Task: structure prediction
Amino acid sequence: MGGILLEPLKVFIVEDDQLLASALSMLVETLGYFVNGVADSASAAVDGVLKLHPEIVIMDVNLQAGG
Result:
């Protein structure tokens, strides 16, 4: 009997530390999710989320000012 194949949830990552953003992306994908975008500022995050429509957002709450 065939099972229903579900697409992995789309995850958007907002992190201004590029090394941490990369590590988070790898971890999320290892867990079976799909990283559909990464942003390094609040304004880029808003634009990305509105364009890409992720189901989950992992966000750094201490982003550096300027974005």
Notes: The CA atoms of residues 37 and 48 lie 7 Å apart. The chain has a mean pLDDT of 92. The radius of gyration is 13 Å.
